[in-house]
Design a protein that fits this description.
The structure is a homodimer of 265-residue chains. Chain A is an alpha+beta fold. The radius of gyration of chain A is 19 Å and the shape is globular. The longest helix of chain A has 15 residues. In chain A, the strands form three sheets. In chain A, strands 7, 8, 9, 10, 11, 12, 13, 14 and 15 form a nine-stranded mixed β-sheet that branches. A four-stranded antiparallel β-sheet of chain A has the order 4-3-5-6. Chain A has a two-stranded antiparallel ribbon with strand order 1-2. The first copy, chain A, has two domains: 102 residues, D-amino Acid Aminotransferase, Chain A, domain 1; 154 residues, D-amino Acid Aminotransferase, subunit A, domain 2 (D-amino Acid Aminotransferase, Chain A, domain 2), CATH 3.20.10.10.
Chain lengths: 265, 265
């Protein structure tokens, strides 16, 4: 027997709900087309391999995403892949994986955030170091929920997060890039953080243009030395950061190049 | 619009599924009565405070658990409390919390596991250190899923887990006690692990009998010095550990006292 808020409901529990035992993708729609879909599906498949979840065939997922993308008014598709039904402990001996798909309107963002840049803050919630899960877009996101709960001021677009050792890792929902000299630097994500689809696409695009892009441990004190800082994810593309506490940066040429590519994709 | 495995379904996503944004309790039933119910409800309320989730009144939850406990054949009730509906990012500005309740048959366990003790193993999956979430029975359980996925031998009852620093913390689904001299020692859970309801009840019961119980950092090498080791959770009560790798222990008087209390509760 099962109940939701006191009402009897049918069906077993999903291990995604029970344990966060799964992965997700948040895919931007442009004119009914899913942007960077191949990258999303590749990351999902790689995450499923890491978690030993047998994913449905990519062709089925792609077809379902395409159908969801045709929903009138939809601006994004959220895809959740879970290990399947649960109810009997942690052992991952469940049956077939489940895919949850949701077509949602895009969240309105001030155009100035892309044009002039955003205000960011530094979160006090630290990210734990877990190499086994680092990089994955898995469903265990309480750290991000706690960090995003630290502020309600709608003028602040994003909060940057450090790991428990004090390294700069990411924003609550974005990856971070900084320009140091002529080099583009972005935090290594082998202990914490999510390897964003947009982050990967932009790293490749910059490298293809001959820009040196380095993924490494980043001390947040390096932000003070950066010529520009920008944030990326699959939905927003790239936002320049114009201020974080006492630090301020211009919306510089690297962020503009990133935005131009995103516009073309 | 929303789909599950390609079929259109109604309703928004639960943040419990989206982000593991919630808590759970697994409550043993004995003759239709929920064991240690007040402790489960107290832990749930404390966890909700830590996560800033507004829980439903305890009286409503208690009444619903009592109703679920009356399900014929049920041996346990699983209660999941989530922050509510989601769909729009990590910000915890959702509406009302949801409670999922499931009445399930008890999992059959070999009687010998309680009588003679269990075989345990040491997991290679390490627990991350996250003081903000340590102790809570929250829904972010991928570490436990990975650890429990390390073995399939049904003769092994449990896997013990270390944190990333190498401290002994817990089993995948149990807390750990060891007897050192006349002292009962159990790992401190301020950086990782779940503060089990049975653990808390037994610590109080031992202390009320004058036994010295210490919660502290534990080096797994101390297991070799222990006179007995036992595992606890709300469903199993207490299992002596009879062997872990090359180590072996008798089912000793501390585990027997714990089992006697559990039998009386």
């Amino acid at each position: 027997m099962r109940w939701l808020d006191g009402i009897a409901v049918a069906g077993p529990l999903d291990r995604g709900l029970e344990f966060g035992d799964g992965l997700f993708e948040t895919i931007a729609l442009l004119d009914g087309r899913a942007r960077l879909l191949e990258r999303h599906l590749a990351r999902l498949a790689a995450g499923a391999r890491r978690l030993s979840i047998t994913p449905p065939p990519a062709s089925i997922v792609a077809a379902e995403v395409a159908r969801a993308a045709a929903t009138p008014g939809a601006g994004l598709v959220k895809l959740i892949l879970t290990r399947g039904d649960g109810g009997l402990g942690y052992a991952p001996a469940a049956g077939e994986a489940h895919r949850h798909l949701l077509a949602l309107p895009a969240r309105p963002r001030p155009p100035a955030w892309g044009e002039e840049g955003v205000l960011a803050r530094l979160c006090t919630t630290r990210l734990a170091e877990q190499p086994l899960l680092a990089g994955l877009k898995h469903l265990n996101r309480l750290e991000q929920v706690l960090a995003r709960g630290e502020w309600t001021d709608p003028a602040i677009a994003e909060g940057l997060m450090l790991d428990v050792q004090g390294r700069l890792i990411c924003g609550t929902m974005t990856n971070v890039f900084m320009v140091l000299g002529e080099e583009l630097v972005t935090p290594a994500l082998n202990r914490a953080g999510v390897r964003g689809v947009m982050r990967g696409a932009l790293i490749e695009a910059f490298r293809a243009e001959g820009v040196r892009v380095t993924e490494r441990d980043v001390d947040p004190a390096e932000l003070a030395l950066a010529r520009e800082v920008f944030l990326t994810n699959a939905l927003i593309g790239a936002w320049p950061v114009r201020a974080l506490a006492a630090l301020a940066w211009p919306a510089g040429p690297f962020a503009r190049r990133a935005q131009a590519w995103v516009g073309a994709w």
